[in-house]
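It is time I had a proper look at our fold encoding. Can you supply me with one protein entry, sequence and fold together? It will help me judge whether the discrete encoding reads sensibly. Leave the record below and I will have a look:
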Amino acid sequence: MKVQIVSKTGVGSSPALAMNTNQTPFNVGFGVVVTGTVNYTVQHTFDDPAVGFTTWFSHPTIASKIDNQDGNYAFPVTGVKVLVNSGAGTATMNLIQAGI
């Protein structure tokens, strides 16, 4: 899978990046780069993308961060997004999933 990029400037959520849950191994790596002043959290969901993403869970270690961070998902999730909690800066997430 090629790198997917999503950004959010100001308070609110970025669009969700849909994951391929049929990949083996599932493994997803991501990095978030901050520009300006921002507090952000990476979130994931297990909801069916065909129905819509409604319930979000915060990443266990990338929550309420103010600087550049990287992390991963070793277990299947259906979607990932970045939530800007506060600030007027930008949080940009680059995400790549293992596989084709």
User: Anything to note?
Assistant: Strands lie at 4-9, 12-13, 17-18, 28-35, 38-45, 57-58, 69-73, 79-87, 90-97. The radius of gyration is 13 Å.
